[in-house]
Amino acid sequence: MDQLEQREALLEAWMSMTAVIRGNRLLKGLSMNEMLVCNVLYRQRQTGGGPVTATELCRRTRLLKSQINHILTGMEHRDLIRRVRSETDRRSIHIQLREEALPLYETEHGSVMSIVEAVCAQLGPEGIRQLTDLLTQATGAVAQYQNLKE
User: Which of 78, 108, 109, 143 is deepest in the core (most CB within 10 A)?
Assistant: First the structure.
């Protein structure tokens, strides 16, 4: 297989994976972007980390500020998050996952983990390690490409 065929095969596999994930409609109560935001807020809460701002969410989810603002407004209307003005810097607004949102997030997380479990069962420990390494490298390459274009 020459380089062009390899690249076309990679693109086809990537698009196929995306289509399967989107087609399964795993998430019932959250959009994929809401799930990304909840994941950041949940992990920050679990680790006792500091407050999360919209700017931090943009950095960690790689979503645009306009996307984050739209997502946060919708989540706030659904009582999933709250925005709290910092007491030390009144210009800063912290985003918090509401206690009432935890069961929804945990259910959705379980649905996503069911896919991860299926992949793990298929690949085995060494395959999981290799796939994780390759996905991490691919993510870095895509991020680097996007930074060059900006």
Answer: 108
